[in-house]
Amino acid sequence: MTRRQCCRVWLVAFLLATAGHAEEADLQDLGRRLYRDGIGTDGESIVAVIGSPGVEVPGTAVACVRCHGEDGRGRPEGGVSPSDLTWQALTRPYDVTHPSGRRHPPYDARRLVRAVTMGLDPAGNELHVAMPRFRLSQADAAALTAYLRALEVDVDPGIEDDRLVLGTLLPLYGPRADMGQAALAVLRAWTDEINRAGGIYGRRLELRAVDAPDEPADRVLALDRLLAAQPVFALVVPYTAGAEAEIAARAATAELPVIAPLTGTSPTSVTPGERALDRRLERLSRQVQPSDHRSTIQLWAAIAAELVTEALELSGRRLSRASFIDALRGL
Ligand code: HEC
Fold first, then answer.
1. Residue 97 sits in the same domain as residue 241
2. Which atom of ligand 1 is nearest to the CA of 62?
3. How high is the pLDDT of residue 267?
4. Residue nearest (by alpha carbon) to ligand 1 atom 30
5. Residue 73's Cα: distance from chain center in Å?
6. Is residue 203 assigned to a domain?
7. How remote is the CA of residue 116 from the centroid of ligand 1, in Å?
8. Which residue of 136, 215, 235, 281 has the lowest C-beta tally within 10 Å?
9. In the prediction, which pLDDT does 94 show?
């Protein structure tokens, strides 16, 4: 091999290696979509076969997430328990016996695909009929496997084992400091109280409060800095007046729930929990007439805190942004 050929071979190998790295991340994203939405790598719905005798249905109607949950640990329903699909559980290095008595050795990628497409576990046992069979292309199978390998660490930002990080953006200095400090005092009292009682499902609430400058454009920058500094699960009672659209757009991109924003005008988009917030505010303000702007803000913050607490309690230990928003909508 000449020196030049050698160099070319090395270059190709290098390009392949780096391409492989990027592909792995893309593959996981594709697998995530398949798992959560039932969409295949070609952008179309995959095909699922349910029941016995089998009936074909679009995979979008029976996405894995519906039964196995966002965290892959399974949601028991109607007497059947969808299996724990975290890679650690699937690949336990010994025989696993399920509550149904089904027993099998560990999974690997090939056996996993066989289970999903043919309904057979590694021992060749037929899986319960409640588990659909899926038609997967090779690319779908690769994407799904890549995703399941990563599922355990795929939790939403701000959620940690022992704490949940929330953010807020309030005017803490300057002409509106009175309002900002009033809301912050309520939020601090709330998190202190929750934490004294041991947190919610073992997670302490940690509130990151950032000053919201008066100038709307500066406030958007302050939000960017907050999100860059630390993963935040949701924004509570942020001061968005004058920057509603920009902040809503930022939040949408980051999939960040915004709870009870302090808007100048009427809110530009419906935020989760808004109806419950309005109802409670109306009910409460009939009992306690807020005497001024400051006490109105405090009332608003207190009700928002109450709603967030309830939604977190409803979501349980396996919290995700999706479960939290669902819970808020249902309040
Ligand atoms: C309608 C509910 C439902 C949906 C949707 C569903 N599953 Fe299941 N799944 C189950 C149930 C229930 C079991 C347990 C079967 C048993 O114990 O025999 C199961 C078992 C499994 C197993 C076997 C693990 C073991 O315990 O041996 C795998 C792997 C699996 N599912 C993957 C998937 C994937 C991947 C998807 C999406 C492409 C999916 N499932 C969609 C209900 C579902």
1. no
2. 5
3. 44
4. 116
5. 15
6. yes
7. 7
8. 215
9. 87
Q: Answer yes or no: is 4 within a domain.
A: no
Report how far residue 167's alpha carbon sits from residue 158's, in angstroms, rounded to the nearest whole number: 9
- Tell me what pLDDT residue 75 has: 73
Whether residue 42 is found in the same domain as residue 149: yes
Q: How far apart are CA 261 and CA 170, in angstroms?
A: 10
pLDDT at 318: 77
Is residue 11 a part of any domain in this protein?
no
The reported pLDDT for the residue numbered 210 is 95
Query: Residue 234's domain is classified under what CATH number?
Result: 3.40.50.2300
Picking from 153, 173, 206, the residue at the C-terminal end of a domain is 153
User: Would you list the DSSP string of 39-106?
Assistant: B-TTSSB-EEEETTTTEEEEGGGG-HHHHH-TTSS---BTTB-PPP-SHHHHT-SS-EE-TTS-EE--
Tell me if 27 is assigned to some domain: no
Residue whose CB lies within 8 A of the most ligand 1 atoms, among 39, 117, 131, for a mutation test? 131
Q: Are residues 92 and 54 in the same domain?
A: yes
270 lies in the same domain as 185: yes
User: Domain of 130?
Assistant: 35-153
The helix (H) or strand (E) run that includes residue 236 is strand 234-236
What confidence score (pLDDT) does residue 291 get? 72
Q: How far is the CA of 130 from the centre of ligand 1 (A)?
A: 8
Residue whose Cα lies nearest atom 21 of ligand 1: it is: 83
Q: CA-CA distance, 265 to 221, in Å (whole number)? A: 21
pLDDT at 69: 84
How far does residue 24's CA lie from ligand 1's centre (Å)? 24
Residue 23, pLDDT score: 61
For the chain, list residues with pLDDT below 70.
1-25, 153-154, 264-272, 285, 288-290
Residue whose CA lies nearest to ligand 1 atom number 42? 131
